[in-house]
């Protein structure tokens, strides 16, 4: 039996609720992003918020991960472990939230954004805005009948046209009753190749974009992935449902995120922009 069984209508409602809690967690954390805040503090706030809503912070003890959220600063590509280090003016930090609702035997919602700490450099703006748009472009390629390679190709073509690179070592994934299941959603590829997107499938798109080369190295803590060349890296992630007409962004937020989407250079596409600000809902 395949592990990524499509969800029934009732299960889908529960999946929506979990994804909306993950989205709200990012809205809650956004106002705390400022110089001097430790990533441990972010971890503590996320852990409390998720548990207060009857859910479990999925990263905690997942394959030995020691904290409740991933915080990835500057050259950290993904899976950064919260610690006593403080955020500094000019840093970029990705906060990747996953929750399980209900806490026992629940559904997984997975979403991340890259925040600006204070005032960013031009190169930090570039890599972050390319990653933000790369997710939008990937989402726009989702429809029943498309293949994962169509999504990856759209993302890769855009990112490379902007002089950046797409990480190969980490992918999006099927999600639902499990955190990570098939298919593997690569953010690079060739059109018409890879697994078929079918109506009812739930999965993530989460492109990691590097300013330099795409290669990554995992540190001695066995989790923290950094760019091999030390260049900046940014990431955005949504959990999605393939629908009859296209896609539903399950982790879509209801308002503009401070310290990320509120910047004049942050262009929000129609598919993940807050409803009040978008012309087409994408549904
Ligand atoms: N949230 C990450 C993802 O997008 C996975 C984190 S696994 C952890 O798939 F153990 F590091 F939390
Ligand atoms: Co994910
Ligand atoms: Co994630």
Report on the structure:
There is one protein chain. This protein has one domain (9-281): Creatinase/methionine aminopeptidase superfamily (Creatine Amidinohydrolase), CATH 3.90.230.10. It has helices at residues 9-30, 39-52, 122-140, 148-161; strands at 56-57, 70-73, 76-78, 92-101, 107-116, 165-166, 172-174, 181-185, 202-205, 208-210, 216-218, 225-227, 233-235, 238-242, 247-249. Strands 1, 2, 4 and 5 form a 4-stranded antiparallel beta sheet that branches. With 283 residues, it is an alpha+beta fold. Helix content is 24%, strand content 22%. Helix 1 packs antiparallel against helix 2 and helix 3 runs antiparallel to helix 4. The chain contains 4 helices and 15 strands. It binds 2-amino-4-trifluoromethylsulfanyl-butyric acid and cobalt (II) ion (2 copies). Residues 96, 98, 110, 112, 206, 237 line the site of one cobalt (II) ion.
């Amino acid at each position: 039996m395949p592990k990524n069984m499509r969800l029934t209508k009732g299960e889908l409602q529960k999946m929506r609720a979990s994804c909306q809690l993950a989205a709200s967690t990012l809205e809650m954390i956004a106002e705390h992003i400022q110089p001097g805040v430790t990533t441990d503090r972010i971890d503590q706030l996320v852990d409390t918020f998720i548990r207060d809503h009857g859910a479990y912070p999925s990263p905690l003890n997942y394959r030995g991960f020691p904290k409740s959220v991933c915080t990835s600063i500057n050259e950290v590509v993904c899976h950064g472990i919260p610690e006593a280090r403080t955020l500094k003016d000019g840093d970029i930090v990705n906060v990747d939230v996953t929750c399980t609702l209900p806490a026992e035997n629940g559904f997984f919602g997975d979403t991340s954004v890259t925040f600006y700490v204070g005032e960013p450099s031009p190169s930090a703006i570039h890599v972050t805005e390319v990653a933000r748009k790369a997710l939008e472009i990937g989402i726009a390629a989702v429809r029943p009948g498309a293949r994962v390679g169509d999504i990856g190709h759209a993302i890769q073509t855009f990112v490379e046209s902007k002089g950046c690179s797409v990480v190969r070592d980490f992918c999006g994934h099927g999600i639902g009753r499990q955190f990570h299941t098939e298919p593997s959603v690569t953010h690079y590829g060739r059109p018409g190749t890879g697994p078929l997107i079918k109506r009812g499938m739930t999965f993530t798109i989460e492109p990691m974009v590097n300013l330099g080369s795409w290669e990554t190295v995992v540190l001695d803590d066995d989790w923290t992935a950094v760019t091999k060349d030390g260049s900046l890296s940014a990431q955005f992630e949504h959990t999605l449902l393939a629908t009859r007409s296209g896609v539903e962004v399950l982790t879509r937020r209801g308002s503009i995120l401070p310290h990320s989407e509120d910047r004049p250079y942050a262009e929000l596409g129609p598919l993940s922009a807050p409803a009040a600000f978008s012309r087409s809902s994408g549904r």
